[in-house]
Amino acid sequence: MISKRIKIFGLILAGLCSLMLAGCGTGSDKVSTGYYKNVAIKPNGEFVIKDRVDDSKAKKGGIFYYVEMGKDDATKDKIVSVTAKAGNAPIDIHWKSTVGNMTAVTAARIQLDYSQDGYIKEKYERVTGKAGVGNHGEASVRYQIAKDGENKGKAEKKYYYNSEGDNNSIGSVAQAKIAYDKKGNIDTITYMNKDGKVVNGYLGASILGFVYDKEKTDVLDSIEIRDNNGVVKNNKNKYARIAFSYDKKGRVISRKLYNEAGDLDGSAQKSLFVFLGPTSLNEKLQQMKDGLIEAGAETKYTYDDKHAGPVKIQFLGIDGQAAPVKDGAKGVAELDMTYDDADRIIDLKFIGADGQSLPLVISNTKGPDELKMDYDENSNISQISYFKNGEALNIDEKVLSNGGMSTKTDIAAVKYKYDSQRNRTEAKYFDKSGNPTYLKLYGTTKYYGRQFEYSENNNNQPKVTYLDADGQAIKADPKDMFLGTWKEPVKGGYTWVVKKGTMEIIRPNGMNSSYSYELSNVKIDPETGKGSMILDMKGKNDSGVETLKFSDADHFEMVDTFNQSKLVRQKD
Questions:
Q1: What proportion of the chain, given as a percentage, has pLDDT over 90?
Q2: Which first-to-last residue range defines the signal peptide (predicted)?
């Protein structure tokens, strides 16, 4: 496949080997320090780099790759790092593999180390400086390069290391052996543990086989999941082979899953999860742009002549008909994307099996069928707007927050700000007319936005400040969530009327009771209202201590009583 793409695009191959310099390989140009439009990684660690761009263009937005070449004697003319950037800042992405529409690494930067003779080490790093992750959970990989023989200059073995530098990754895979065919194409990758015993690795394969087109022998036809005897076997997801089809430009237009019998896998997992938080959504959009989204027996990708990414992704069954997603974005059978001039997705539509728009389901709640995105100068999402049937949509709070209360809001758009490490620092809410609107803190206090403050020791869990309509910090007491009128939703149920420090229990038989009360051990999530508090009541004739367990700000139950009671907030 790579050689074919060289003929079409004039790709630049940067081989990772102690003798091989950047810019080698048939039909390749010399790689130099600077920005490139496209980078992919071969399973043997070699980079495929193409489309050099001017620095000024790369800094205007969209994702580009900054390639840095070595300057000292040991690294001269060798790649020492490749960094994914958007605007002028690094960005965590799913790096593409050269194998079909598949991913290789999640990181912002890949650093290369040539200090050990005969080996090259690739280290994955996120924007925050923490370790990135490869397909086996590894934080880095060390490649052993053949010094002689027919594979001279190629990686014949790879060793996986976790973030602590230990020679193992998630699971038992610690190393892999790479074999080549007579034409120099990767033939198999065999996964092993520390002791050299063959174990299950990527995609559940003990041996991952690479099958090439019979006529165009440099074009990858499929990859196979094989057992330790080299026999094609189903993995736990019940497929044994992934087959790829390409258009005239070498882009993947179809990805099919076959079982060991050679039939399309009708039980292929049909899952797709899309959340509306700006960071996770931006990551998902980048995967869509790179064609890294798949579901079902077959996934089809349709392109236009202007943009690098697909404008349509379709999920199909064994009969070639639409096969909707079952897990996550239920019912979605197609994604339609519109791009800006920087190849960023600015419009995303969810389509059902009947070809009509379909609301995205999040936390079992229907949301928008269309999302529109704006970006800042570093390609962070600066605004997400929600639509249904082409009209602005007031989104449900449960959809917005991926859980919590199912409450209607006036929010039709959210605007965001970020720091230099792409951490979200501010979110503000707006209605259909573009006016500020609100959510409720502890189910009672209106807040119009949030600010997020990060520190080195908060484990990426920021301090959250809630803002009023004027952008000032709100001080809200979680105990106030108990205020209001509550009622048991059963015939003859009691009604509680709760005020500051006092409450009245109204009974259908007229035997009402008044109490003073105190609350303690209050543990409530400010946004969802989920949590608990202890109620200490004192009345004229009776008293008691109860634990109130809130499922959200509008529902609680009393526990530790002879008869448990559930109460629901009564709206004014």
A1: 75
A2: 1-22
